[in-house]
Amino acid sequence: MRIEIKRAIYEKNDQLAAAINARLRARGVFTVNILGSPGAGKTSLVRQVAERLHGPLAVIEGDVSSDIDTQALRALGVDAWQIETGGDCHLNAPMIEAILGKMDVKDGSWLLIENIGNLICPAEFVVGEDLKLVVSSAAEGHDKPLKYPAIFGRSAACVLTKLDIAEAIGFDEGAFRKGIETVAPGLPIFPLNGRSGAGAGKIAAWLESARSAVRK
Amino acid sequence: MRIEIKRAIYEKNDQLAAAINARLRARGVFTVNILGSPGAGKTSLVRQVAERLHGPLAVIEGDVSSDIDTQALRALGVDAWQIETGGDCHLNAPMIEAILGKMDVKDGSWLLIENIGNLICPAEFVVGEDLKLVVSSAAEGHDKPLKYPAIFGRSAACVLTKLDIAEAIGFDEGAFRKGIETVAPGLPIFPLNGRSGAGAGKIAAWLESARSAVRK
């Protein structure tokens, strides 16, 4: 019974997400669903790639509570919009549908969706994205791919942050990469320093090429 | 309809959790539900306090996938048991009931339950605990209390880890404490170095006094 309810929720969500994606694609909008733990560096990634991607760009920020990140992005001139779930542990397609009705996303835009800080539930709910990016911080430890295989397995690339404190924290990058090869073989891994922006150029270039590939 | 289903799930879980807690208390077992993000340092906390608490001790480790932490604790001689949820984002009372049937928890024990790495859903499901501890790492950033108020609001104390990298990461402890005062006024905050164990003595002493208070 519980499984049937869950399946019905997923199916309804999947259908709406597919409709959102088709509508956005028809207008040349490319949508990225950004996933990761609390404090992994998702907002820093958004900030750094927003400066480097070509063309118009809009951001949807998901949080359980507060609009701290949206305010910070707006202060930088980014067209950012907040979804505050009030307790829900993931974004879903109906939430995206509702906020898109308020936004004025330009044709040909990038649409970056920062999901709720959570390595589990957001992996289960598509929101209309063309691809998922997972952000993982060295501070979380190198065992995260083996402990949370679904989110790594469903992402098109992994952004690895806070490597400047890897040694202090005892983070073993080799073990992290081995974990990735076990749960998501071939997943590209992009190091990023969220504060200096080192590494963001490569991520932006990869996103541009992924977008070109989808358009073909 | 969805809200009614959720309420029914919570009520059933709450009832079983209350029964588990009553049964454990009658045998002098004191149960701690340990919450926090992936990589916050929950297992390090367990390891460090396990060495310092008086009397018999058992540990239940919750993970979506893998038994890495249970194996590591067993290698140290800790009586640790794994719950692998296979996708579920929190532990619940039925999972605890099931694993307690396999364990041999001694009368008068400490029972430490390490919940799934997640700052959201585990706050909603009691599992038979006497109190909750939330572990937050400096690497996650100082805005976590304001972003995840429920989990801080429902915990009896907060363990703050990885302060040795606070400066490198730009963690503002004053802002963190201000956030705690907003969402959980008066919540005790215990710094812990998970590797050296510095700070663990105070946490163990606080747990001993919390246990004595409950017994009165």
Protein architecture, described:
- The structure is a homodimer of 216-residue chains.
- The first copy, chain A, has 216 residues and is an alpha/beta fold.
- Chain A has one domain (2-215): 3-Layer(aba) Sandwich (Rossmann fold), CATH 3.40.50.300.
- Chain A is 42% helix and 19% strand.
- Chain A has a seven-stranded parallel sheet, with helices on both faces.
- In chain A, helix 1 (2-26) packs parallel to helix 4 (93-100) and helix 2 crosses helix 9.
- Chain A is globular.
What are the main properties of this structure?
alpha/beta, 216 residues, Rossmann fold, homodimer, 9 helices
Helix count, DSSP H or I runs of 4 or more residues of chain A: 9
Element order of chain A: H for helix, E for strand: HEHEHEHEEHHEHHEH
Spatial order of strands in the largest sheet of chain A: 3-2-4-1-5-6-7
Low-confidence stretches of chain A: none
How would you sum up the major sheet of chain A?
A: 7 strands, parallel
Portion of residues in beta strands of chain A equals 15-25%
Q: Nearest-angstrom radius of gyration of chain A?
A: 17 Å
Rounded mean pLDDT of chain A is 96
Most extensive interface, residues per chain? A-B, 36 and 36 residues
What is the global morphology of chain A?
globular
CATH architecture of chain A: 3-Layer(aba) Sandwich
Instruction: Give the oligomeric state.
Output: homodimer
Structural class of chain A: alpha/beta
Distance N to C terminus of chain A = 43 Å
